[in-house]
Design a protein that fits this description.
This protein is mostly helical and about 325 residues long. It folds into 2 domains: about 50 residues; about 230 residues, MetI-like (MetI-like fold), CATH 1.10.3720. It has 13 helices and 2 strands. It has a two-stranded antiparallel sheet with strand order 1-2. It is found in: Cell membrane. It is a multi-pass membrane protein. Keywords: Cell membrane, Membrane, Transmembrane, Transmembrane helix, Transport. Its main location: membrane.
């Protein structure tokens, strides 16, 4: 083989080698993200799309799906003669009540606990572990603990109230006590997670900002509003949005503690969707799916509004 043929072969093979190298560069990122992509597709994207499809059908799991268009949405959004309309909005009001009562405390209490622990008082590691520990428990365990404590006749709380001369309080059977009970057990269970997030944010605020504020004569309250809160803007937005979404998705606490009672006072939206879709002799999967879609769109709109309000320039 002469020299000219070798040069020709080298020139011919060079594009192929370069093409293979480019394919390897393109495939490498896909290989890294493929586990998450597979998980996302199977457990999030596919169920979401399939749930949207179901919402346009009448289906009870046992018969073939029958396409009915927007009838399910009409029965829960604007057809006031439908029983689902009344129950859906009653459950939404119950959910909104829980959100309004719980979210402010689930943000403010962890914030101040995080600020106190960040100051590193004596035993701060112990108190950080103490406040975070309940978040490691399952919701069933948490609710059982509080049912034992709040039982009207044999609960620990009413025992001590009776010892102090007070009458028994129907914590789990009468309003407004049921709402107080649900909010308190939720706060006790979840403040640890938000506290850790705020602690991480506080650790990112430079100390020289506080020193400059002290030199300018700012007291602790002024430092809080002018240094701490602006420094926690990112974690605060994240905590607020995630806490709001989690509160709208509340189900286990009212299901296990009050069973939606008294009456339907604490039958929140997720609990009602579960009852429509999976209980009774004739489950309505299509109706439940349409309710889930409406709730999802509501949460998306609320999250976008919160994000815009918290990130807009002053």
């Amino acid at each position: 083989m002469n020299v000219s043929n070798v040069k020709t072969n080298v020139k011919t093979n060079a594009p192929r080698i370069k093409s293979r190298s480019n394919w390897k560069k393109k495939l490498t990122p896909l290989l890294f993200i493929s586990p998450h992509l597979i998980f996302f597709t199977i457990f999030l994207a596919y169920p979401t799309i399939y749930g949207l499809v179901i919402s346009f059908h009448s289906w009870n799991f046992f018969t073939d799906m029958r396409f009915i268009g927007l009838e399910n949405y009409a029965n829960i959004l604007w057809n006031a003669d439908s029983i689902y309309y009344d129950y859906f909005w009653a459950a939404f009001r119950a959910t909104l009540t829980f959100v309004v009562l719980s979210v402010p405390f689930l943000i403010i209490i962890p914030l101040f606990i995080a600020i106190a622990i960040h100051a590193r008082p004596f035993g701060h590691n112990f108190f950080r572990a103490l406040f975070y520990a309940p978040s490691l428990l399952s919701v069933v365990t948490v609710v059982l603990i509080w049912i034992w404590m709040l039982d009207t006749n044999a609960g620990l709380v009413n025992f001590y109230l009776g010892w102090l001369g007070f009458d028994n309080i129907p914590w789990l059977t009468r309003t407004p006590w049921v709402w107080i009970s649900l909010v308190v057990m939720t706060i006790w269970w979840t403040i640890g997670t938000n506290m850790i997030l705020f602690l991480a944010g506080l650790g990112e605020i430079p100390d020289h900002l506080y020193e400059a504020a002290k030199i300018d004569g700012a007291n602790r309250i002024q430092q809080f509003f002018n240094v701490t809160l602006p420094g926690l803007k990112g974690p605060f937005i994240f905590v607020m949005i995630m806490t709001t979404i989690a509160s709208f998705n509340v189900m286990a606490q009212p299901q296990l503690a009050t069973n939606g009672g008294p009456g339907y006072e604490t039958r929140v939206l997720i609990l009602y969707i579960y009852e429509v879709g999976f209980t009774g002799g004739n489950p309505r999967a299509g109706m439940a799916a349409s309710m889930s879609v409406v709730l999802g769109l509501m949460l998306l709109c609320i999250s976008l509004v919160q994000f815009k309000l918290m990130t807009r320039e002053k």
